[in-house]
Amino acid sequence: MNIKTVRYHLSVLLIVALLISLFSVSTANSAETEAPDSAARTAAENSYPFSDIADSYAAQEIRSLVQDGILSGYEDGTFKPRETMTRAHLAKVLVLALGLEEDGASADVFADVPANSWFKGYVGALLNTNITNGTSQTTFSPDSPVTREQLAVFFIRAFNLEALAVKLPFDASLSDVGQISDWARPHVSLAFKIGFLKGIDNGDGTLRFSPLDAADRQALARLAYEFKLNQALYKSKVQQLEAAIALAAAVKAANEAIAALPDASELTIDDKAAVEEARAKVEAARKLGATDKDFPNLSKLADAEQKIEELGRPRGGGIIGGGGGGGGGGIIRDTEPPVIISGSVKIGEASVPLVIGTNNEVTFNVDHALNNADMITDFTIVASSDTDKLIVTSSGVSRTVTFQNGTAHVSVAELLGPDFDRQGDGVSVGTLRRHLFEGNLELTGELTDKTGNKSTVKLKIVKPASAPVPEITSASAVIGGKAFSIHTNVPNYIAFIIDDALQDTDMFTSLTVAASSGADALTFSESGQSRTISFASGTQQTVKVATLLGPALDPQGDGVSVKKLRELLQNGNITVRGVLSDTNGKQSPVILTIIKGNNDSVPTLIGAAAVIDGNAEPAVITSGNTITFTLSKSLDDSQMLESLLIHASSNADTLAITEAGITKRIHFSNGTAQATIKELLGTAFDPQGDGVSVGKLRSALKSGNITVSGTLTNYTGVANNVTINVIVE
What is the largest CA-CA distance in the chain? Predict the structure, then answer.
């Protein structure tokens, strides 16, 4: 282990020691005063142990940490939340907590640390950790209080983020930004970027930091609470921030490379390397998450690639080389177009063959036997021995695959595009299946050999026709004699929104449900009673409300009024669970959720469901525009939380979530959006965009609940705050 690694781990240990030990030692005038006696320890065992924290903004944090045995106070039963701590005392706490040896000699560099002082050995030992280097080259300021800006520096160094901090521009929006010392500005800025520091409200909508004020014990209690419970969250925000920096640099490099290219009319074959380099930089940026809109001159690159291809194309007739004169000895040019011979796809550790049809049609069947979590990493394509390249085009963008001796090994990003493989390390089977829910994927390409012969290639990715388990394929509600489509793009999840446009007198009379071939029966059970919908006579059935929701809602068998549904929905959404069975005995869960619509001027959340291994599980919507999803004990660690379906007011347009300075916008259509976990929680939880395992979430939740805040905006620009919570049962 090198010295930098040792120092990093030591720094982390030190900051934990700071937060744990800082509150177990009193800060009376004498720096030698030790921790509270048994009277204070007895007080600490009570739920509300201190007499002076009722008006502290960190009262709850103090109480929580006392209950965890981390905090204690003074022997008189007080905590002194507003009292400060000197730098000398801080040095002693850290050194003693870690059991480090005192090192008085190292403190000789500080003129204000006397040779006979009680704290010299502690200061010297602390100096070697690099968490603090003194207030100057010759002073430590042992009697000075620890300031708020110093504390920011301590934390950023402890997280090993100082190098990142100094690279970033300062952009903390603080009214007293000019008071922050130059040496602390990067650290304060980064602490605000990741949300670790919140600032102090000025009462007029602005924030201040008060960098030179002493950091009191209640402020440290709050930071200790945050550090203890949400370390994973802050680390994920840092990763998102670093990803944004890398993306911005890659996009800049790609755009500069494109701009440096001559216009297509001025290109020569000598410019081929520069064109290829520009394309490589574009693809590298795509792997980091860039999209076409990040490259305003992408058409210039496409024109350049086409011109280079034309310049390299052989010219002349069917005979090349040799002879002259009598024409003997000429070499006949190959005129046969190249063909695809075979292919395979790497999935996990297995190699799955591709199906090669006539006319270069290549098919990849996403078989039901494949596991959603398996990663598809690359394709192998074998073609005619003289094949040179395959140019695949999708969404107006071309990608070139090169062959060596008739064989090409191509990544998912190169073949299918960056939308399927933003990280450059593959795509999960589950992600492909979600794309295939709305239809098979088809790409076209052009295969070229070394003599310029070309042929068309079709690549198809298909989902087998028969489902492994029965699925609801569509559904519509009959209200007031009109049919309203209510099926979402998640199998077996039916979300029915009672829109404001519906009249109170309209009657919800029936539901038409279509299921996959082979579906036999859909059974709803509640309160010990079962109601069954039979599919024996076909894949589509019309069901009365009494059968669907029970006779209590529809005693006459003629439906239920919209008015009555709205009254029932005042107490929360109505959710009915069922089981769909097929003729082979296979089953799958079905969920029907009825949601009260809202078209107020202020956009609001009205419903949500988490998609786990392809199945929907309703989340809870509470007041204050909050979605809470609970990881149930019944969920297995290997199951994947893939996305979150969000139902909002019909006028909802976007949900903007900003984490670590990066804003992600989730768009709504007819009041519904399906957000990936990557969009909601960031790349630290979902780097591939195909979900996060329940086990990984449970591990992260050991440090506290996961909370994300955002802004929901309607089409007219009216906004409302939104909170998303993930908790463990």
Answer: 116
- CB-based contact 14:94 (threshold 8 Å): yes
d(C-alpha 663, C-alpha 658), whole Å: 4
How far apart CA 178 and CA 184 sit, in angstroms, is 12
- pLDDT above 70: residue 79: yes
* Beta bridge pairs of residue 724: 627, 708
Alpha-carbon distance of 675 to 664, in angstroms, equals 10
Tell me how crowded residue 323 is: count the other CB atoms within 10 A of its CB. 11
Cβ neighbors of 571 (< 8 A, separation 6 or more) are: none
Residues whose CB is less than 8 angstroms from the CB of residue 620 and which lie 6 or more positions away in sequence, other chains included: 627, 628, 629, 630
Buried b (16+ CB within 10 A) or exposed e, 26-40: bbeeebeeeebeeeb
The per-residue pLDDT for 475 is 83
pLDDT of residue 9: 45
Q: Which residues contact 553 (CB under 8 A, 6 or more apart)?
A: 545, 546, 560, 564, 568
Mean pLDDT in the chain? Answer: 77
CB 712 within 8 Å of CB 598:
no
Question: Which stretches of 268-420 are DSSP H helices?
Answer: 272-287, 298-312, 412-416
Nearest Cα residue to 317 out of 337, 332, 336, 338: 332
- In terms of average pLDDT, the best of 136-145, 550-559, 575-584, 674-683 is 136-145
DSSP, collapsed to helix, strand or coil, labels residue 229 as: helix
Catalogue the long-range contacts made by 680-685 (C-beta closer than 8 Å, 24 or more residues apart): 680/644, 680/708, 680/724, 681/236, 681/706, 681/708, 681/726, 682/236, 682/237, 682/239, 682/240, 683/236, 683/239, 683/240, 683/243, 684/232, 684/235, 684/236, 684/237, 684/239, 684/240, 685/236
**Predicted pLDDT of residue 39:** 39
- Cβ–Cβ < 8 Å for 334, 451: yes
The pTM of this model reads 0.42
Render pLDDT for 415-469 as a digit per residue (tens, 0 to 9): 888 777 766 778 888 777 767 765 678 888 999 998 888 999 999 888 776 556 7
* Strands annotated E in 369-453: 375-383, 387-394, 397-402, 407-411, 427-428, 441-449
Residue bearing tokens 């793009």 = 489
What phi, psi does 149 have (nearest 5°)?
A: -70, -30
Residue 210 buriedness (CB in 10 A; 0-12 / 13-18 / 19+): middle
Closest C-alpha to 220, from 71, 28, 13: 71
Residues in the chain: 729
> 457 near 382, Cβ under 8 Å?
no
269, 312 contact by CB (below 8 A): yes
Tokens of 679: 């969009």
- Closest by CA to 487, choosing from 618, 613, 672, 675, is 672
Whole-angstrom distance, CA of residue 449 vs CA of residue 446: 10
**Bigger pLDDT: 412 vs 26:** 412
For the beta sheet containing 706-714, the strands, ordered from the edge strand earlier in sequence to the opposite edge, are 620-622, 626-631, 719-728, 706-714, 652-659, 662-667
Residue 670 has pLDDT above 80, yes or no: no
Token pair for residue 91? 């040095």
Residue 155, SS3?
Answer: helix
